[in-house]
Amino acid sequence: MKKFLLLNLALIVSSSLTAQVLETDTYSSYTVGNIGTSTTGTVAGQGGMYPYTGAVTDYQIVSGTGGHGNYLQVTTGNTATATASRYVFKDGLDVAWNTRTAGNNIIKGVADIYTGTSTGVHSSGVAIYGEDADGNSVGIVGIRYNSSTKTINGLAYLTDGLTGNFYNITGLTTSTFPANTWISVGYSYDTITGQITYVINNGTPLVLNVNGYSTPAGFIPNEFDVYSSPGTGNNATTTFGIDNYRVLASNTSAILAIDETTVAKNEGISIYPNPVVDYLTIKSDKKVNKVEVFDMSGRNVNAELNGEKVNVTDLSSGNYIINIETKEGKTSKKFIKK
């Protein structure tokens, strides 16, 4: 999909406060087994996730380890070619982004990455994709585990004045992480300034600064990806896992890998069933004051809230975003109408 190059980087410090949830998943309500029935990238699986490349058995919901419940496990290919890559994505992030609270112009992501079998030469993790001002698809920001070096690497769209690519960023940390280890990671991108920040295991937030390159502003997110790509010399499969991911919008520049104030307050919100036929139920430990439902074009569609239930009977089949507002702020979640 994207071109990856290796760079070293210089890092400086930043700090953090609050955020608004755009998308989140813990996989706790998923059924153990295949995430979907197709790897064409066109058929939605559990929770609206789209597997792409490989076999359906390469994308599994498995029972937890290391204190985790269910999580998403991905098995990569055993070659150094593109066929060894694995992708699971959710689209519609632009709809949630476009309905964010005014002033929350920084995209943030947090996730737990499981290093799994940690064999072969693969870089595996999470990323945010989007569009530039001309409507071209670009990788914006992300963070991954390298199974060969056992290190955490960043992802960033960088330009050198002539070209721009989604680069693999080395040098985030000298620490290594062995097989079968959970790591908390975070990343952010300021759509106004272009600043990119990373954090690993709740350590000091690190701001990307690469001599001779810039991180352009203005990219708009539209897709969350879990994926792995092979490196030169790869000749083995590996497994890796993702759990407790969140994509956020904020007006502050830094991140906490495990959580943020507004996220913690809205963590008790969930929706079911998903996919849904007639009534979507909202489970929340806070009173729900308002809901708004948007289709994938960003159009606000009619959906009535009655207590804890939202009537979606009259909606056409497809993917939707629901904004759930409590006194603590807004949470956005994606659902599928059958």
Can you summarize this structure?
The chain has 338 residues and is mainly beta. The chain has helices at 93-98, 261-266, and strands at 6-7, 10-13, 20-25, 33-34, 50-52, 59-62, 71-75, 86-91, 106-114, 122-131, 137-146, 151-159, 164-169, 182-190, 196-200, 206-209, 220-230, 239-250, 270-272, 279-283, 290-295, 300-301, 304-306, 309-311, 318-326, 329-337.
Mean pLDDT: 86
CATH class descriptor of the largest domain = Mainly Beta
Count of individual helical segments: 2
Q: Could you give the count of β-strands?
A: 26
User: Biggest β-sheet: count, sense, barrel?
Assistant: 10 strands, antiparallel
State the helicity in percent bands: under 10%
**CATH H-level superfamily of the largest domain:** Galactose-binding domain-like
Overview of this protein structure:
There is one protein chain. The protein is mostly beta strands. It folds into two domains: 6-264, Jelly Rolls; 268-337, Immunoglobulins (Immunoglobulin-like, Sandwich), CATH 2.60.40.10. It is 4% helix and 46% strand. It is built from two helices and 26 strands. Strands 2, 3, 4, 6, 7, 9, 14, 15, 16 and 18 form a ten-stranded antiparallel sheet that branches. An eight-stranded mixed sheet has the order 1-13-12-11-10-17-8-5. A four-stranded antiparallel sheet has the order 19-20-24-23, with no helix packed on it. A hairpin with an 8-residue loop joins strand 6 (59-62) and strand 7 (71-75). 46% of the residues are buried. Mean pLDDT is 86; it is low at 1-17 and 256-265.
